Amino acid sequence: MTETTQRNRPESPDKEPSPLIKRGGGAPATRGRTTIADGVVEKIAGMATRDVAGVHAMGSGLSRTFGAVRDRVPGGGRSVTRGVKAEVGESQTALDLEIVVEYGVSIGDVARDVRENVVAAVERMTGLEVVEVNIAVSDVKLPDEADDEEQPEPRLH
Which of 70, 92, 128, 156 could form a disulfide with 76 if both were Cys (CB 3.0 to 4.6 A apart)? Predict the structure, then answer.
């Protein structure tokens, strides 16, 4: 230690020098607050839902039709949050999903798999507790039906 440091530190003959005092009120990870927007949770849930086998699409027929039109507009892009509604609180979230399942799959099994995948993804990525995942099956995609979300053939080659 330098002489200057020794002069500035009070010494007690029966105690060791006191450790440096930490400023700022605790560990850096506990300082401040993190908020997560509804849209963030909706995107995570939308991606996790689409990853489940048996889920053909998300949203009602009308929202899928409007989405297909928007997808064809330059810069419109696909909406990952179509068919997803989230309510986010300080430490919990609740989700409502609207899905279209493929013909022949067990709707109960698909719903279970969607819930498991969504809860795992949202809780892992956000730290929020998922209190409920409500699933509405709005349609069944039959094998011979045209796909609403198919991209049209390009006009120029």
Answer: 70
